[in-house]
Structure formats: structure tokens, C-alpha cells
Amino acid sequence: MNSDNILEVKSYAFALRIVKLSRYLQDEQKETILSKQILRSGTAVGALISESVYAQSKPDFISKLHIAIKEANETQYWLNLLKDSDYITVKMFESIEPDIIELLKLLTTSLKTAKENNV
């Protein structure tokens, strides 16, 4: 991981939080279905960003960022569902929600820049 790449660093840190959240849901809440869903989508964001660093072409790079945005959006959905179904507290939600919002903003900006420079 390139420590100069803010998107890689933040997505990796977010993935770690998601792994811990999933473990909490499985251990403390005895919830497995939603915990696996958020684990899959929440860690996919960072994996796709990591893949994009070594994309084969500009269109491949853009494609990977598009998919990362979709995964981030899905993760936000699962976080809201976990909060609204009382699997996580509002405090837990408010602790992690800014991270996914920030990732979505960074991804959107990166994608916009990549597309503008692709002409």
C-alpha cells in the first residue's frame, strides 16, 4: 500500500473497521447474514482501490473506481440497515458513517478527475 495515496490509506483503515464490526456482529449480536454482507462490500472498496493502482489502462482504472463507488454505496446501505434494525447503536453508526461518506466523496472526485483527463 502506498502511504502517499490517501484513498488507499483511508479505504484500508475503513476495511479494518468493517472487519471489526463484522466480528462484533457475529460474536456479540449473533448476526451472520448482515455481517457477511457488510464485510463483503466494505472490504471490497479498498480491494478495488488497490486494484485500480495497477489498472491496465485508463478505462480499466475508471471501471474499478466505478465499482468501488457501488460497493461503498452498498456498504452505506448496510450500515443504515444495521442501525435502523438496532444491531448497532446510533453512536456506533455515527462513528463509522463519516468514513464511508468521506470515501464516497474521494472516490467521486477521483473518478471525475480521471474522466476529465481521459479526453
Quickly describe the structure.
Helix content is 82%, strand content 0%. It has helices at residues 6-27, 33-53, 58-84, 90-116.
Describe the structure.
Pfam families: 23S_rRNA_IVP. This is Four helix bundle protein. InterPro entries: 23S_rRNA-intervening_sequence, 23S_rRNA_IVS_sf. It is a single chain. This protein has 119 residues and is mainly alpha-helical. The protein has one domain: Up-down Bundle (de novo design (two linked rop proteins)), CATH 1.20.1440.60. It has four helices and no strands. The protein has helices spanning 6-27, 33-53, 58-84, 90-116.
Number of helices, counting only DSSP H or I runs of 4 residues or more: 4
CATH fold naming: de novo design (two linked rop proteins)
Describe the sheet with the most strands.
Answer: none
Oligomer: single chain
User: Can you tell me the overall shape?
Assistant: elongated
Q: Give the SSE order as H and E letters.
A: HHHH
The count of strands amounts to: 0
Number of structural domains: 1
Overall pLDDT: 95
Protein name: Four helix bundle protein
InterPro entries: 23S_rRNA-intervening_sequence, 23S_rRNA_IVS_sf
Pfam families: 23S_rRNA_IVP
Write the layout of secondary structure elements.
Blueprint: H1 6-27, H2 33-53, H3 58-84, H4 90-116
InterPro entries: 23S_rRNA-intervening_sequence, 23S_rRNA_IVS_sf
Protein name: Four helix bundle protein
Organism: Candidatus Marinarcus aquaticus
